[in-house]
Design a protein that fits this description.
The protein has helices at about 25-40, 50-55, 60-70, 95-105, 125-145, 145-150, 175-180; strands at about 5-10, 15-25, 75-80, 85-90. It is α+β, with helices and mostly antiparallel strands. It has a single domain (about 5-155), classed as Orthogonal Bundle (Arc Repressor Mutant, subunit A). The longest helix has 19 residues, at about 125-145.
């Protein structure tokens, strides 16, 4: 399984640094969030898998699998054929990061000792209790974060992409808007 890697460094002494890798979210989760945020950013216009793949740097074959998961979860609707494409089936302000994550790779809380220790069967040990509290904080933060807030956050770069594809025929910007642009000399 591919995972999103978070690297933490801290000095052990002046000459050495220790590098630790924490795998918090799968690559599928990362791709799904990119896809949903991108689709929210184009304002309800249908986008083809090729357009979504290009804009989100998601492999096209893998994108199809994720879109099916999101469709089964009621987040995306897809239509084949001329004029088809994928759109969000819910308004971005009504859709949270938690909703997306739970469909593709659900957050799992620690409810019993992961080691199966009998002495920990009634209550979690301090370590697993603290880890579960951290998971609860992430879960709560994701529940409070709407997809629309990820698109419209002021003073920050747009998520995941340098720019939305605007070439003629992309279907994401009307030909009229493209004609109004003047080439820079």
């Amino acid at each position: 399984m591919d995972v999103v890697v978070i690297r933490l460094e801290w000095p052990v002494c002046r000459k050495f640094r220790v590098l630790t890798t924490i795998n918090m979210f799968s690559q599928t989760t990362e791709y799904a969030l990119r896809i949903v945020v991108f689709m929210a950013s184009i304002g309800g216009k249908p986008a083809t898998t090729a357009q979504i793949a290009k804009a989100t740097a998601t492999p096209q074959q893998y994108l199809a699998k994720i879109l099916r998961q999101l469709a089964r979860g009621g987040i995306v609707e897809s239509q084949r054929g001329l004029g088809g494409g994928s759109v969000l089936s819910r308004h971005p302000e009504d859709l949270t990061v938690y909703d997306v994550v739970q469909i593709v790779d659900p957050i799992t809380r620690i409810t019993s000792c992961p080691l199966g220790l009998k002495s920990h069967s009634i209550r979690l040990c301090p370590l697993h209790f603290k880890l579960d509290q951290a998971i609860a904080l992430v879960e709560e933060s994701f529940k409070k974060t709407s997809i629309s807030s990820m698109v419209a956050e002021p003073n920050r770069p747009r998520p995941m992409v340098e720019s939305i594809p605007t070439e003629p025929g992309s279907g994401l910007v009307s030909a009229r808007v493209l004609r109004k642009r003047k080439p820079q000399d």
